[in-house]
Amino acid sequence: MLVAASKINKDSIDSSATGASFTSDPTLLRVIAVTKYFISTLRSQYCSRNESMGSEKKPLNPFLGEVFVGKWISSDPTLGETILLSEQVSHHPPVTAYSIVNDTNNVLLEGYNGVRATISTTSINVKQFGHAILEYKDLNESFLITLPPLHIEGLINALPFVELDGTAYIQASNGYFVTVDFSGRGYFSGKKHTYKARIYRDQVSSASKENALVTIGGQWLEKSYITPGSSSPSSKADELFYDAMAVTPQHLSVKPIEEQHELESRRAWRTVAEAIKTSDYDKIHIEKSLIENAQRDLRKQEEESGTRWETRWFDYVDYEKDIGPDPFVNLTNLSSLSIKNAPSGSLKNSKYDVGEAKHWRVNLDKWKAETEIKI
After folding, report:
1. To the nearest whole number, what is the mean pLDDT of the chain?
2. Domain 2-246: which topology?
3. CA separation (Å) from 277 to 51, 271, 283?
């Protein structure tokens, strides 16, 4: 994911990489590049099961403490090695924390994701909790990326698929503010997986779309286009921004299952995965129950002994305490977004701007001290 984004720096970024030949402003180009990075992640996150299995499938529920680690290795020495750490830090509610680190370019992406779902007569509606923070430390620049709501359509005809809706935001520490509005196919018109992103000089300017410096639009699963100003881009008149189907995914390098720790996803769920491949539903149930019952026994033992599960690489940070200068605080102030653990993208003083201000953050010192799990 971050292999391409890690090369966004003052020496290497250019308009050809972002689809923005109409500007030479390096700070604006970086905002466009981060927007492109965000759009580029959507296909693998929300359509991969559709493409491989024909329709959306219910994923296995990660257990508390489950981890997935790997790395991307580039032949380009300017990119170097990029490491992924992910950990299930909560089971009720389910929350996955993650970090992507590239030391060569001194780039760090960290964040977490949790979901809460409601069911209607025709769809499953999901609010996402969490966000990502992308830091280019050599440039002293950071970006807050929020997560869009989504719903699962196609339940009636038994061909479910994920559709994003609502708005995601990208706030840059240099002031630029991006709104990414998602929409889908309606009953009579429209196209699936449609979005329109507008880049503004700051959050205040976003009150009117006429203030947009750049507008990007199209389908996040297919092609989208970019144009200066606030007008909607056209495939006939404007330049290509991103073609999701033309990009070959850059797969992680992961250790063989035999060398993995028992908490690593592929080893932990190996017997279940093998049963799924052979459509052995009895074995799926048996093996899945063994894992789930073992986890219930662990939680019971912890309760009886008065202890609790300790997360491995991530800390639960309370932002209502004095934690000193922090990118998250600065970025939420610039964007007028809630600092609370609210549905992603909630505005300050909105009905969701309530509750605790606790968020998961990576502790790289813990990773450096790790002795059992290595990449």
Report:
1. 89
2. Porin (2.40.160)
3. 16, 10, 11
Model confidence, pTM:
0.91
Question: Rg of the Cα trace of the chain?
Answer: 21
- Look up tokens 């509606």; give the residue: 125
Distance between CA atoms of 334 and 340, rounded to whole angstroms?
Answer: 15
Closest CA to 128 of 341, 373, 301, 350: 341
pLDDT at 323: 82
| Residue intervals in the chain for CATH 3.30.70.3490 | 258-305
Residue 347's pLDDT is 95
CATH number corresponding to 258-305: 3.30.70.3490
Q: Per-residue pLDDT tens for 49-94?
A: 655 555 556 677 899 999 999 999 888 888 999 999 999 999 888 9
Report the C-alpha gap between 113 and 132 in whole angstroms. Answer: 9
d(Cα 244, Cα 45) in Å, to the nearest integer? 12
> Once rounded to an integer, what is the mean pLDDT over residues 306-329?
92
In the chain, CATH 2.40.160.120 covers 2-246
pLDDT at 102: 96
Beta strands in 52-123 (DSSP E): 67-73, 81-90, 95-102, 107-119
For residue 287, give the nearest of 260, 301, 267 by alpha carbon. Answer: 267
Q: Is the pLDDT of residue 188 over 50?
A: no
Which own/partner contact pairs does 73-78 have at CB distance under 8 Å and 24+ positions apart?
73/253, 74/3, 76/7, 77/104, 78/7, 78/12, 78/104, 78/105
- How far are the Cα atoms of 84, 98, 154, 366 from residue 371, in angstroms, in the given order? 17, 19, 46, 10
Which residue(s) pair with 219 in the sheet?
A: 194
If you write DSSP's letter for every residue of 132-181 in order, what string do you get? EEEEEGGGTEEEEEE---EEEE-TTTT--EEEE-EEEEEEETTS-EEEEE
Q: What is the mean pLDDT of residues 271-298?
A: 93
